[in-house]
Amino acid sequence: MLPLLSTAYLPPIEYFAAIAKYGGAQIEACENYQKQSYRNRCTILTANGKENLNIPVLRGGDCHTHTLPITQVEIDYQENWPMRHLRAMEAAYMNSPFFEYYIDDISAILLSRQELLFSLNLELIRLLLNFCGIKAEISLTEHFEPACSPDFRNRIHPKSKLPCLTREWGKEKPYWQVFAKQGFVSNLSVVDLLFNEGPNAISFLV
User: Fold this and answer.
1) Rounded distance, CA 197 to CA 206, Å?
2) This model's pTM is above 0.90
3) 3-class DSSP state for residue 146?
4) CA-wise closest residue to 39 among 64, 21, 1, 12
5) What is the pLDDT of residues 47-91, one digit of tens each?
6) pLDDT tens digit string along 152-192?
7) CA angle 126, 131, 132 (to 5 degrees)
8) CA-based Rg of the chain, rounded to a whole angstrom?
9) 169 touches 19 (CB < 8 A)
10) H or E stretch covering 100
């Protein structure tokens, strides 16, 4: 049984560890949008500590955003958030060993001005899986299931009080980070792992 995951923007390391563990995943395409989640947020490590990068979304006309199906949520380009995110990643990782190896492909997707959040996330997830060396079966749900197993839709969440899945599964291993001034910071966006470890990233996910 493939795990059920919510869509996510440049997802955290545990998201990819789950895909690697089960050999694939179903991504929830039939839920409504949820605010303050990884659906439009990722976390990187900067000189000032952890920083959240958020994709602004349109409110959906007369509808509240949280009542919109996730596949219909549109990205707001009123501000040039793609350049802001890319500059933040450059400031955080330009001195990491593999930043230049990956950033051009990530930039190309972010600057493509995708209309829908779900489509942008899916394209980035497929790219990052390839970067990580994970061969996985990725499918989309066709109807909403209130509960199933394994279900990580709410488990992989910025506000989760539970230990991250890599720690729970005994797979969490520290790696070198540019700005780990107070010690290793775990479960950041997988780009942190890729920029710092490159092709060796897979050894921290399986």
Assistant:
1) 14
2) yes
3) coil
4) 12
5) 999 999 999 999 765 445 567 899 999 999 999 999 999 999 999
6) 999 999 999 999 999 999 999 999 999 988 799 999 999 99
7) 95
8) 16
9) no
10) helix 99-110
